[in-house]
Each structure stands twice: as C-alpha cells, then as structure tokens.
Design a protein that fits this description.
Low-confidence stretches: none
Number of domains: 2
Shape: globular
Largest sheet: 7 strands, mixed
Structural class: mainly beta
Mean pLDDT: 97
CATH architecture of the largest domain: Sandwich
C-alpha cells in the first residue's frame, strides 16, 4: 500500500469575503508542486459562499466537474440551456467536453452555502457537453458505501472516466472494507465529518488520505463519521 496524507490544516486557503475556500490540490492562487493532483483527480475544493455570492459565467473544457452541496443550495446556469438549483442531498455532474460556460451562485441571498467542487480529468476528450443531477437518500449509505457517480451504474450519475464517487455514514466503531473498482485505481478518502482510522492513520474532519497499489483497505470509524471516497485511475 502506498499512501499520501493531506491534513485539513495543510490545504491551500483563500478568503475573498464572498468566498472562503480550502484547496486540497493546487488551484488559483495556491500552488504546491507536490499537490497538483492524485491520479485523475485534479481539484477538490471545499467552498463556502456567502449569501448572494457566487461565480459569474466562465468557461471550461475537457473536465468532469462534480458539485456536492453539504449545506444550503446552489443556483446553476450553463450554455446547454440548463438552469437548476442543487440542494443538500443532491449531487451534480457536468461534462465540460468540447466547451461549456456556466455560473454558480448561492441560491440564498442570506445564508451561506458550503459545497465541494471536484474536477476529474476525462477519459475521452471533446465529447458533447452534458449536465445531470440527482438526489440521493442518506439512508442508503448508513454503514455502507453509496455510489453516487460511476461510469457504469444506472442508479448513479454517469461520468466520462473510469472513476467512482461514494459516500458513507458510519456509526462509531463500525469497520468497513473498501475495494477499488478497477485494477490500478487509487482512492482518495476525504473525511467530511467525524474521525476515522485508515492504515493505522487517524483522520479528523476534512483530513484526507490517498491510497494506491492496494486491492482493499479497512476503514474504522472512531466516532460517527461521514466519508467521501474518490476512486480514480492513477495514470
């Protein structure tokens, strides 16, 4: 097993007033040559946007972009004609493909929204841009993995990559085994809340561990814990 540890307080950080963001990987004003990506996972931003704030229309291409609201809701608009609100409990994916423009704003004028912004490098370039979102019941991840993004599962959101995103809500002292979905994939485990131990490494809220060259590994919840696992090709 090869591991890389990213503690919460080592992430890049910017605060523009309307946006308070922590970056697990190099992004914008934050650059660390040792933290540019984990395999095909390029961005994991933990964004807090003030009421009424947001990202005005801007372009993307050839990137799989996933948004997961943790608190509050986002207003989304893009050049495919999609105009949606994404609420806590939902997951959004956008294949930028050959090129797309979009904007994201806090759906509320008064309360802040906290969401994860995840970028994964695509398997096939220049596909037709597409958008999708789906609500997922938290009861389906109680002490088990709930796959929310996948290349091959009808009950998940489709992604243009051999990548899987899974959520798990574990009770204290629950032990669970995760097996990467594809040979030579690695897994980036991000603790949304609580505490967990992986490979004898204790992880707290917003800590992360990248695991590669391993067929399976055990996760032990030291407290009630909420986890995100990002299973991606390493090359």
């Amino acid at each position: 097993m090869e591991t890389i540890l990213h503690k919460a307080d080592t992430r890049g950080h910017v605060n523009f007033g309307w946006l308070d963001s922590h970056h697990s990987f190099s992004f914008g004003h934050y650059y660390d040559p040792a933290r540019v990506h984990f395999g095909m996972l390029r961005v994991l931003n933990d964004d807090m946007v003030a009421g009424g704030g947001g990202f005005p229309t801007h372009p993307h291409d050839n990137m799989e972009i996933i948004s997961i609201p943790l608190k509050g809701a986002l207003a989304h608009r893009d050049s495919t004609g999609t105009e949606k609100a994404i609420h806590t409990g939902e997951v959004q994916i956008m294949s930028a493909g050959s090129g797309i423009t979009h904007s994201e704003y806090n759906f509320s004028k008064d309360e802040e929204v906290n969401f994860l912004q995840i970028w994964i490098m695509p398997k096939e370039l220049n596909i037709e841009p597409r958008y999708d979102q789906k609500a997922f019941s938290s009861s389906e991840r109680k002490n088990k993995f709930q796959t929310v993004v996948a290349p091959n599962m009808e009950d998940s959101l489709w992604i243009n990559q051999d990548a899987w995103l899974s959520l798990a809500d574990l009770d204290t002292n629950t032990s669970i085994i995760y097996e990467p979905k594809k040979e030579r994939n690695g897994v980036y485990l991000f603790v949304l809340d609580g505490e967990a131990t992986v490979d004898e490494q204790k992880l707290g809220k917003r800590d992360a561990i990248g695991i590669s060259n391993e067929n399976s590994f055990e996760i032990l919840a030291n407290s009630d814990a909420k986890l995100l696992l990002i299973d991606v090709p390493m090359k």
